[in-house]
Amino acid sequence: MTSKKSSLGRGCFFYIYSIMEASFYTPDQSNLLPDQPGVYKYYNSENELIYVGKAKSLKKRVASYFTKTIGLNYKTKKMVKEIRRIEITIVDSEFDALLLENNLIKKTQPRYNILLKDDKTYPYLLLTKEPFPRIYPTRKMIQGKGIYYGPFASIRGMNNVLELIRSLFTIRTCKLDLNPYKIGEQKYKVCLEYHLGNCLGPCEGLQGEPDYLNEIEQAKNILKGNLGVPKAYFKHQMLKYAEMMAFEKAQFFKDKMELLEKYQAKSLVTSPSILDLDVFAIETDEKSAYVNFLKIKRGAIILTKTVELKKKLDETDTELLLTAIVRLRDQFQSDAQEILVNIDFEEEFEGLNITVPKIGDKKKLVELSLKNAKFYKKEKALASGEVQDKKFRVLKQLQSDLSLKELPDHIECFDNSNIHGTNPVASMVCFLNGKPAVKEYRHYHIKTVEGPDDFASMTEVVGRRYKRLLEEAKTLPKLIVIDGGKGQLSSSVEALKQLGIYGKIPIIGIAKRLEEIYFPEDQYPLHIDKKSESLRLLQRIRDEAHRFAITFHRDLRSKQALGSSLTEIEGIGPETAEKLLKQFKSVKKIKEASVESLEAVIGKSKADKLIQSFKDIKKAGD
After folding, report:
1. pLDDT category, 319, cuts 50, 70, 90?
2. What would the pLDDT profile of 54-92 be if each residue is shown by its tens digit?
3. Which residues form a coiled coil (predicted)?
4. What count of other Cβ atoms lies within 10 Å of the Cβ of residue 112?
5. Cα(first)–Cα(last) distance of the chain, in Å?
6. Rounded Cα distance, 481 and 465, in Å
7. For residues 499 and 468, what is the distance between their CA atoms, to the nearest angstrom?
8. Taking the CA of residue 36 as centre, how many other CA atoms within 13 Å lie in the half-sphere pointing to its CB?
9. Cα–Cα distance between 222 and 166 in angstroms, integer?
């Protein structure tokens, strides 16, 4: 067996192993395994890899699964029953086993192994490999295209770095192929970026490549997190030009130095004595572990990330944390020699300097990391275990804003629709627990009102709605919302008084123009904060009622227009036209219908007249 060491990112390693003879065992042969560090793989009867583990002693660790019957949890016992074949790889140290295990799990993702719940594709900044290199964000890593810096845990953090670089240096953003031949042949012209001072025009040969590459070198230091190098460079340039009495140029570099200092101040600077290190803290519950990672570079936090690990086989906190340490350092390419954690490890790992600080700034960093892990755990609990509280949060806010006695988990809203008094209709929409209950929506034809009288129409539909609910002994809403101001609200109140239920159901009106909330018998409206979730809910309910009414009105007018074209046919009246449209939905489909299907709806005599009329219209058109 031989092993080869290869670099992965910056300072992380994985191992490629070649085994002359495959080291395969059955569960009964577990006592024959070597007493050496390594990685073991369990396969089931279908030759599927179900678990990958590491061990300081392969013999002791693997044998424990089959000889130890007490203390194993249900999931572990279930896995053991599935094992049919064991494959091992011997390595030089437990740390080597840890790295190999990590890479095998990432590649194969066995179902009994701990997996990081994080499927994001993180962004990088790419420094291209071309004449006059560019720096731009990307999520795809293509070998040979250039140097990738990152990944960044957030788009915002990446954009802050990119914005800083573009503020400090004149690096081109165009995609032109700036090889010496094309520049010499004057193939290109400077763009707006040149005139804005963001680029010095290398495309026209106005900036030489050595000068451009000098700026790229300074930008690379920022991408690596080494802010001290460009800061020292700007200071040196400032002093140099000041001595030469070139004060404008000196001020130019002073501004850049101050910009860099301002950016550095935004990072949480820990202590000048702390250089590069990684901080990890773990917080667990019965099913998961939450691990926060702080990456410290030259005394400043340059990256923070929290992940969730689902427990699979009743793993200990140290096992879970160790898994997270290896994977997060690998993912974010950390080469820090020192690692701070919040729990003690039972054993030491050669190659990992893991400590639990007791005092000072390092202890404060671990406390900060733990605070982030606990916050993430709390957020997850709110998002899953306390969904009900989250669902009712807006309703509780609405209850408070409107001073309601009960939670408004059943809201009904009314709206009218008519154009110049034609086809007056109304709609009622229903929201249960803050969500639309579409099956409870209702349309109303206005029956007792002539002309465009919104007030009288509102009295009619509100009265009809709650008269029916009372007759059918159905539940009344906890809040009635009227789309309109004082007039529509007063009309609705009148309907409730006639039914004897005024005062039993809270009722409000919402005016569109200023989003004012009106209460009965109160001349002053209520103004809810425009950013309030409760107002947004009321607006959503009001808009839904308006949409539902408008749609109904539009469909009605469309149907009437279609119906009028049918009623012009001799022998076809409004009732017959309505039957046809109800059955076939459109005049076009009526024309395409068979004689038999038409006869089934309106009878043979009317069907014959209809078909003959369509033939006459077609003949006249020809």
Report:
1. confident
2. 888 888 888 888 877 666 777 788 888 899 888 888 888
3. none
4. 17
5. 90
6. 13
7. 11
8. 11
9. 11
Structure tokens at 1: 């067996």
568-621 has the same fold as 277-384? no
Rounded to an integer, what distance in angstroms lies between the CA atom of residue 376 and that of residue 270? 22
- pLDDT of 547 above 70: yes
With 50 as the cut, is the pLDDT of residue 13 above it?
Answer: no
71: alpha, beta or left, given left = phi > 0 and alpha = psi -120 to 50? left
> Helix, strand or coil for residue 102?
helix
Tokens 């002073």 found at: 254
Helix runs in 173-314, H state only: 180-184, 192-195, 209-223, 228-243, 247-266
CA distance 572 to 556: 19
Beta-carbon neighbour count of residue 439 at 10 Å? Answer: 7
| C-alpha–C-alpha distance, residues 408 and 431, integer Å | 9
- φ and ψ of 236, to 5 deg: -60, -45
Nearest to 573 by CA among 615, 603, 533: 603
Phi and psi at 402, nearest 5°, equal -95, 0
Interval 157-183: pLDDT, tens:
778 788 888 888 888 989 899 988 888
Report CA-CA distances (Å) from 317 to 224, 373, 448: 32, 14, 73
| Segment holding 276, helix H or strand E | none
Span 323-350, average pLDDT: 83
- Block residue for tokens 């007056």: 424
What residues pair up with 306 in beta bridges, in sequence order? 292
Tens digits of per-residue pLDDT, 574-603?
677 777 777 776 767 777 788 788 888 888
The answer to whether 458 touches 485, Cβ cutoff 8 Å, is no
Backbone angles phi, psi at 145, to 5 degrees: -80, -20
Domain boundaries defined on the chain:
2-108, 277-384, 395-555, 568-621
- pLDDT for 619 equals 56
DSSP string, 17-81: EE-SS--EE-GGGGGGS-SS-EEEEEE-TT--EEEEEEESSHHHHHHHHHH--SS--HHHHHHHH
| Cα torsion angle, 567, 571, 574, 580, sign | negative
CATH 3.30.420 fits 277-384, yes or no: yes
Q: Which whole number is the average pLDDT over 380-397? A: 68
How many CA atoms, within 13 angstroms, populate the side-chain half-sphere of residue 566? Answer: 30
Q: Select from 353, 355, 320 the least CA-distant residue to 334.
A: 353
Q: Residue written as tokens 């005016």?
A: 511
- For residue 271, pLDDT over 80 is answered with no
Amino acid at 424: P
Structure confidence at residue 301 as a pLDDT band (50, 70, 90): confident
CATH number for the segment(s) 568-621: 1.10.150
DSSP annotation of 259? H
Tokens for 290, please give them.
């939450």
- Crossing angle (nearest 10°) for helices 74-82 and 58-67: 100
The fraction of the chain above a pLDDT of 70, given in percent, is: 82
Q: Give dist(CA 280, CA 345) in Å, integer.
A: 13
Q: Which amino acid is at 105?
A: I
Which option is the CATH number for 2-108: 3.30.70.1350, 1.10.260.40, 3.40.1440.10, 3.30.470.20?
Answer: 3.40.1440.10
Rounded distance, CA 290 to CA 118, Å? Answer: 12
